[in-house]
Amino acid sequence: MKTYILKRILMLIPVMFTISILVFFLIRILPGDVISDILGIEQTPENRAILERQFNFDRPVPQQYLMWITDILRGDFGVSLRTGRPILPDFVQRFKVTIELALIASIIAWIISIPLGILSALKRNSISDFFIRIFGLLGVSVPNFAFATLLILVLALGFNYYPPIAWVDFTVDPLRNLQTIIWPALVLGSIMAGSVMRMTRSAMLDNLRQDFIKTIRAKGAGPRLVIFKHALKNSLIPIITIIGMQMGALLGGTVVIEQIFSLPGVGQMTLDAIFKRDYPIVQANILMLAGIYVLINLFVDLMYAVIDPRVTLK
To answer: Which residues face 90 on adjacent strands?
Structure first.
């Protein structure tokens, strides 16, 4: 196990290195001139030269990359071109909002999808199975921004309720915090539940057809023992896989939802930086989110051996 973990961690190095190159150089080919945007009507050759030296834009692009990646290895993710503030503290503060949103959305998705997936597999081709499959299809088909807009309209027009938009930290006012985050989490959780439910149903159906399930039933085991201890347990690997993929996608895919519900998360921070051409923030945020995503994948791989003793990690 230790050898496998060490190998996987070493494999992350070239992955992150490749991501850093792609992010840095793709940002550089985007249209627009951030120096001109910052200077505005005060743009002169002298002022422009000062800012280019300050931000190292007067150096060759490969040299800029080497300086940037060297600073990152020392824990310095740079400063904002607009505010001059260090990026890392702002990212950590915004990431607290995004990770809270992603965790609550994931919990909602698990609560909805796994029981529905099991029920759909047990009631295959029944009326309940039909409606559950429709729900799963909607979950993977409806864009999250469309569902969010529809939810806000229903709450406003049907119940005269408007989701609060003033963010309050959980440590300050837990109730107000949950009132703010529960609606965007419900949107993301419902969308995520569609994929997880479909995978749960498929895995359960596959295992319920296996010979070992027939043998266990022939020995007189009760339905609960057969379903939860044997069928569900042997279905967990694909379920865990899709959950890990969805959680990683949630961390980087909350941009639109954070914008709709005015949540001060990483998604909104990155979107604002793109609009303002604040490239250091965009680069740092994408790189850190990519690092978190690959760590989630590593954790999922390690969970395989915990869930299924037949899986050996070498």
So the answer is: none
* Diameter over CA atoms, the chain: 87
Task: Using the structure block, give the residue that is written with the tokens 């609009």.
Answer: 275
pLDDT digits (tens, 9 = 90+) for 67-126: 889 989 888 888 888 788 899 999 999 999 999 998 999 999 999 999 999 999 888 889
CA 165 to chain centre: 21
Q: pTM for this one?
A: 0.85
Tokens of 154: 């229903």
CA-closest candidate to residue 98, choices 230, 235, 258, 313: 258
125-131 contacts at long range (C-beta below 8 A, 24 or more positions apart): none
Q: What DSSP designation does 300 have?
A: H
Torsion sign (Cα): 36, 38, 39, 45: negative
Long-range contacts of 296-300, Cβ-Cβ distance < 8 Å, separation of 24 or more: 296/244, 296/247, 296/248, 296/251, 297/244, 297/248, 298/5, 298/8, 298/9, 298/12, 299/244, 300/240, 300/241, 300/243, 300/244
According to DSSP, residue 142 is labeled S
Cβ 121 vs Cβ 204: under 8 Å: yes
